[in-house]
Specification:
globular, Rossmann fold, alpha/beta
Length: 349
């Protein structure tokens, strides 16, 4: 792997108003000397725009942060950004997220996740970069029965259009790595959560419903297991990966061996959904989001699995540990406590 020094670099972060993108941008601006971060985001209304605006406001005070409100599906725009800023490192986090939304709004996924990513690859080809890091997803593992999920597993059976677009990103990146010698690393994220996270995620939706006195549905009768990964752990993984690009090398045929890598970033310790909800409820009471006397039992309903969902997902992170000496470690209670405290401040103060 080739080491990359991030100091004095121009880094393009797409999806900069998103959950991971905003946290990554802030971390780079806080910790990397003389870094310039170009943030690109369409700020669409897939979920509450006020949360995206809140994240952007956290970034607005940095003089070396430039924000561009545009869509990566616009090829001329993407080209002009590369032409003007000449980023040395690109982190593509812009994507239409969400498994269920892909059933009702498939066009949005094709536009952002396929067409948009293609434009990023084309720009990296025409304006060479040191490293392209991009978001894939744990959803590519589809209905795989073997757990933990390893990047060596075959992932040819996606169960949603969202997963299909993410698998396609990996294939497109591999082709561009091979054809144009672009170092690319894909990251399969596992259930990311934390303060100012995505309102379409279960823990956030549960909180909204409990606060409104509504009943929450717990799928598969609570027997789902998920690898919940705290946002700071995800960002730490991304920053480490950015600094080590897959090596360029020539094969026996005289052609480039694609400088291409894939990693899981997850907690490697799946949590039962019922336990997760129990800790969440305790932390919401502790933070004052719910009253001490809240009758939790009467507000939960155990229901069967949803189509497209899988009972257990968790990450084999051995490759991440081997190559970067890193393993996410934030406990569920610590992470949910920080989320509950943020929620109280954002919605109730």
């Amino acid at each position: 792997m080739s080491n990359i020094d991030l100091t004095h670099k121009t880094i393009l972060v797409t999806g900069a108003a998103g959950f991971i993108g905003a946290n990554l941008s802030q971390r780079l601006l806080n910790e990397v000397e003389d870094v310039k971060v170009i943030g690109l985001d369409s700020v669409n209304d897939y979920y509450d725009v006020s949360i995206k605006e809140y994240r952007l406001k956290q970034l607005s005070g940095y003089s070396t942060f430039t924000f561009i409100k545009e869509n990566i599906a616009d090829k001329e725009l993407v080209t002009s950004v590369f032409e003007k800023y000449k980023p040395e490192i690109v982190v593509n986090l812009a994507a239409q997220a969400g498994v269920r939304y892909s059933i009702t709004n498939p066009d949005a996924y094709v536009e952002s996740n396929l067409v948009g990513f293609f434009h990023i690859l084309e720009a990296c080809r025409n304006y060479p970069v040191e490293h392209l890091v991009y978001a894939s997803s744990s959803s590519v593992y589809g209905s795989n029965k073997k757990v933990p999920y390893s990047t060596d597993d075959k992932v040819d059976n996606p169960v949603s259009l969202y997963a299909t677009t993410k698998k396609s990103n990996e294939l497109m990146a591999h082709a561009y790595s091979k054809l144009y010698d672009i170092p690319t690393t894909g990251l399969r994220f596992f259930t990311v959560y934390g303060p100012a996270g995505r309102p379409d995620m279960a823990y956030f939706g549960f909180t909204d419903k409990l606060r409104a006195g509504k009943t929450i549905q717990i799928f598969n009768y609570g027997n789902c297991k998920r690898d919940f990964t705290y946002i700071d752990d995800i960002v730490e993984g991304v920053v480490r990966v950015m600094q080590k690009a897959p090596d360029r090398a020539t094969g026996e045929d005289g052609l480039p061996i694609p400088p291409y890598a894939l990693y899981n970033i997850g907690n490697n310790s799946p949590e039962n959904l019922l336990d997760f909800v129990d800790i969440l409820q305790q932390e919401l009471i502790r933070a004052g989001v719910l009253p001490e006397t809240y009758d939790f039992e009467s507000h939960k309903e155990l229901v069967p699995m949803q189509p497209g969902d899988v009972p257990v997902t968790y990450a084999d992170t051995s490759a991440l540990e081997r190559d970067f000496g890193y393993k996410p470690s934030t406990s569920l209670r610590t992470g949910l406590r920080k989320f509950a405290e943020w929620y109280k401040e954002f919605y109730m103060n």
